[in-house]
Amino acid sequence: MTKYYLLVIPIAIGIIAGGFLAFYPEPEKNPTKLTPSTLIENGSPILGNSNAPITILEWGDYQCTFCYKFHKDTLNVINEDFIKTGKVKLVFKDFPLNGPDSVLAGEASFCARDQGKYWEYHDELYKNWGGERTGWVTRESLDIFASTVGLDLQTFNECLDEHKYQNKVNALYEFGREIGIDATPSFLVFNDEKIIKIRGNQPLEVFLKTIDEL
């Protein structure tokens, strides 16, 4: 499989659409080697057909304003036109810039995954988004979201009480930093030949152009 090399601080070798798209692979002197499989592993369950030729890897924070806006608007179109049609698959990785509450929300999403409802819980978190660092992420609110999507609360709370996935969420953050992620949302859109980075909640047209490029 083709290997990709990403700098810790990305230096774009190609720029389009105003400078927020960076093309990879980058200079081979960088020791961090990535493949599509290593980018996907340890993230969320795949949304869409696992054999889709293009992957969107989203780095997000459940308290992030622009992550919320992406999920509220742009993702709906991408889901209907590309994910559900088997052209694109989506993977989410936590990048909790907004502190412990974002880490806890990430932990809760993986506790929901244990019961087969990762994406239902993920969507419920964004549906009930309450701002950045406003205190809306609490054990009480996380339980309410769990009830809404039909989780077994005892099992869910045992998972949160033991912080089963705290190290996993923190490790995702560190991995993101190592490959140059420094803002949410950020996206790595890739196939077997090229990786394109999108930084921020860009207009839908940017994602469409990126998918077309790949």
TrEMBL record:
GO terms for molecular function: oxidoreductase activity. It comes from the Archaea. Keywords: Disulfide bond, Membrane, Oxidoreductase, Redox-active center, Signal, Transmembrane, Transmembrane helix. The chain crosses the membrane at residues 6-24. It holds the Pfam family Thioredoxin_4. Signal peptide: none annotated. Residues 24-214 form the Thioredoxin domain. Belongs to the glutaredoxin family. Belongs to the thioredoxin family. DsbA subfamily. This is DSBA oxidoreductase. It comes from Nitrosopumilus maritimus (strain SCM1).
